[in-house]
């Protein structure tokens, strides 16, 4: 099998390692089947469609809608690399699944308006598939129900999508929870690479990044512990199954 590539943009080594472990677990891929590209520090490797099965982009402390003069060097470098990779993804029809930061980057690349109007605090939300979502091959492979719980925490979100994008899932406070461009380039607002314990661990690492009030952190965690969000990680296993070659 040709390997998949996981793109990471988290500068914190411990958080990045935890994220990688989660992607390996949920995809079911072995270490040598999932290359790791940390674009906050290194360029994307010289790989094309003939070399890989697909690309997974996880969440990030970065937000594409930040003013350019407010972005760190690591963020600017990561975004430039991601947009270069997305040029290749679209041109070569490489399977792509981006989570959270992925919806901002793929959306921006494809002409969506990404801003802070539909941001959501850390928590569990109801996600509902559209008719197109119920018919989508990746979602069908994942056996997602018509409505399920997704885990979110994001400052920016899709405001408007270009006409060529297909909305696959919606939510009440963030209307675009998943979309597709082309036939196999996907982005989700919710996190398929996180379950309840891992989102709590992630939130502790980013407690002062504005996703929730630090004074309310334990109350937020208590509410999360009362939720079940077992369906979204199925997308990662389905992506690895459907596009492996």
From TrEMBL:
It holds the Pfam family GATase. The keyword Ribonucleoprotein does not apply. The keyword Ligase applies. PROSITE patterns: GATASE_TYPE_1. It is an enzyme of class 6 (ligase). One of its GO terms (molecular function) is GMP synthase (glutamine-hydrolyzing) activity. Residues 49-194 form the Glutamine amidotransferase domain. GO terms for cellular component: cytosol. InterPro entries: ChyE-like (IPR044992), Class_I_gatase-like (IPR029062), GATASE (IPR017926). SUPFAM superfamilies: Class I glutamine amidotransferase-like (SSF52317). Keywords: Glutamine amidotransferase, Ligase, Transferase. Its EC number is 6.3.5.2. This is Glutamine amidotransferase. The lineage of its organism: Bacteria, Bacillati, Actinomycetota, Actinomycetes, Micrococcales.
